Amino acid sequence: MSTHQAAAKSRVDVMxxxxxxxxxxxxxxxxxxxxYPITPQTPVVEYLTQFFADQELDCQMSExxxxxxxxxxxxxxxxxxVRCYTATSSQGLALMYEPYFRxxxxxxxxxxxxxxxxxxxxxxxxxxxxxxxxxxxxxxLQIYVEDNQEILDTTxxxxxxxxxxxxxxxxxxxxxxxxxxxxxxRVEVPSQESVDAFLPSYHSDHILLxxxxxxxxxxxxxxxxxxxxxxxxxxxxxxALDVIAQVHDEFARLFGRDWGGLIxxxxxxxxxxxxxxxxxVTGAVRxxxxxxxxxxxxxxxxxxRALRPFPLQQLRSAMSGLKGYGVIDRNxxxxxxxxxxxxxxxxxxxxxxEQIPCIPFISGLxxxxxxxxxxxxxxxxxxxxxxxxxxxxxxxVAHEGR
Amino acid sequence: xxxxxxxxxxxxxxxxxxxxxxxxxxxxxLRTVMKILGPNTVFAVPPGCMGGVGVVGWNKQSGAKPPVFxxxxxxxxxMLAGIRLGYNAQGRTDINVVAFAGDGATVDAGFQxxxxxxxxxxxxxxxxxxxxxxxxxxxxxxxxxSKWAWTSTTPVNASGGGGKRQHKKDFPVIMAMHDIPYMATxxxxxxPDLVAKVEKAMSVTExxxxxxxxxxxxxxxxxxxxxxxxxxxxxxxxxxxxxxxxSRRKIRITRKVKEPIPVKAYIQASKKxxxxxxxxxxxxxxxxxxxxxxxxxxEQVSQEx
Lengths: 402, 305
What we know:
The complex is a heterodimer. Chain A is α/β, with parallel strands linked by helices. In chain A, about 40% of the residues lie in helices and about 20% in strands. Chain A has a seven-stranded mixed beta sheet, with helices on both faces. Chain A starts with a helix and ends in a 7-residue tail after the last strand. In chain A, about 55% of the residues are buried. Chain B has one domain (about 5-305): Rossmann fold (3-Layer(aba) Sandwich), CATH 3.40.50. Chain B is built from twelve helices and eight strands. Chain B is globular, with a radius of gyration of 19 Å. The model of chain B has no long low-confidence stretch (mean pLDDT about 95). Chains A and B meet through strand 3, helix 4, helix 6 and strand 9 of A and strand 2, helix 4 and helix 6 of B. Strand 9 (about 215) of chain A pairs parallel with strand 2 (about 70) of chain B.
C-alpha cells in the first residue's frame, strides 16, 4: 500500500492521548488484554473495555484485581504465543515491578503504554516520567512521545518492534499524564486495513508452554548460563536500535508521518547550542527555539524518543561540535543531584573528543507547567554557560508565599 | 478397576530422582495428581518445596514431563489465568492449566492473585499442598501454620513458651465462599478420595477449581519418615483437617468422622507441638470442635437449600 492510499483510508478525529493509545492498541489486534485502572491511565481501560463490549475488539479481555495481576496474566498469556497489551501509571507500575522485570528477562514482546505520573510521596496524581524512568534498567524498551498522534503511531509501531525476531523484548510507549492523556488534539486514525498491511500477526517460537512441545521454563539456573541470558538480552537491546529505526521508516513511508526514529532533531543543522528534551515539554521547547532563532541565537532541539535502547551514536553525531547544551528533566536522579536524562546524555557524550559545556535542568515535577519563559531562561543559561555544570538548576515559577 | 489399579497403569508424569526428603508425602501427592492430570497439562510450580526439589527440571530428563514453569511466589493464579486466556484466544480449550503450590504461595503471598482469579472465574485448577509454612527454606511460619507450633520464625524458648501466636487461617472455607464451582480438601492418607476430587476438579469447565491438601512435613515438623501417612491420617481422624468439598457454596463432608480421636493424639505425632501444655492442647481441641461444628452446620444449610 502506498502512502497516498494509506492516508486516503485514514480518518481525522479529535481525541485525547488515552484514546489515541486505546486506538493504537485496538488497531494492532492484541489477543489478550489485562488492565487495571489508575489515574491518569484509567480512560485507556474504559475505552478498551467499551470497544470490547461493542464487539469492535476481538480479544480475551480481563478486568484484573491489580497491576501485579495484569502483568502476571500477560506474562502467562505471552508464554502461549499470543499478542498482549496493557497500560498503567506510577504506583501501578511500581506494584507491577516484579512481573515487569520478568517479562523482559523471559523475552516476552508485551506492549504497555505508560501514562507517566509522579511517584508519591507527597500524594500526587499529575504528570512526570519518574515512574518509568526509574525502571529504565529493567530490560524493557522505552520510547517517550510528544503528542497524541505520536502516541497512536508509536503504539502500533511498538508491536512490530517488540515482536521482531532480533528483538523479542517488551516495550513501553510512554506519554505524559494529563498534558497528553487528558488533552484533545487532532489525530489521524489509520484504517484497520492499512495497519494490518503494516503489522503482521505474531508467531512465537522462542519460548512456549505448550503440551504439544513440552519444555520447562525457568529451571534453577547457574550463573554462567544466566550471564549468557543477560548478554543475549543486552545484544537484543542493541539490535533494537536498528529495528526501531527500520520500523519507524517503514511506518513513515506507509502513513506519511515521520517522528524522527530514535531521536528527533529540530533546527540542529547549523546550531551551536541545544536543549535536550523528552515527552510533551518538547512542544514548548520547539517554540522557544523558534523565538531564539528569530533573535539570532543559533540554538536547536534534540528530542530523545528511545531511552532504552539509548541512542548513543545518534546523540553523539547530533551534538558533536556544539558549544553548549542543557537537558530539561521532568524527574530526578536521587544521589546525582540532576535529572536522569542528563546523566544518560552526558555519559553518551563522554565518547567525544571534546567536552561540551552543559547544564542539568530540573523542572515541571508533579505536573507543574514548564512555561515558555522557563524554557527561555534555560536557553539563555546554556548560551552563557562555559562550564560542565554538575548540580541541577531548578526552573520553576515563583509561587505566592514560597 | 480400583483407584490403585488405575494409578498403576498411568504414566508417571514426574521423572525419577527428584530430591524430596525421604518419605515426603507431597511427592506422593504430586505424582498421584499428575498421573490423573496426564500430559495435556501446563503446570505451574511456584518457589517452595516442589520447586526446590527440581520439579521444574531440565530437558525432560528431570522434573515434570509436561510443560512446567516457576511462576513468581505471588502470581501463580494470575500467570495461569493468562495462560488460559492465551489458549482460549487460540481455540485450544482442552488443556489442563494447573497450579501445584505450597501454602506460602497460596494463603500468604499469592492470595490476592488467587482470590482475583476465583472471583473472575478464570478456568484454572489450583492445588495447594499445605505443609504449614515455608518448609523448603528452613521452616518459617505462614498464615497456614497451626497455633502454638514451633517454626524457625516462631521459636520456642527454654521454658517452653513461644510458638505461633495465631490460629491457622481457615483457607478452604475462604475459597469455598468465593462461590467457585469446585473446592475440596484432601489428604495423602486418603488417595481414592484425592483422586476422585482431582477428577471432579478437572471436569470443571467454567470457573476456578481449588483443592487444598494437608501434607504434614516430616523434616519441618519433626515426624519420623515412616510415619508420614500415619500423621496425615490422624489429622483427618481427629477432625483437625476435615475432608469436604463444595460447589457454589454447597458444602458436603466427604469423610464423616463420627468418633474422632483426640487432637492430642494427632499433634503428638509432630515435634513442633512437643512444648505445648495441656491448656494449649485443649485450645486446639476446642478450635477443632468449633470448626467441625461450623462445617456440619454449613453442610446442613446446603442440604436444606
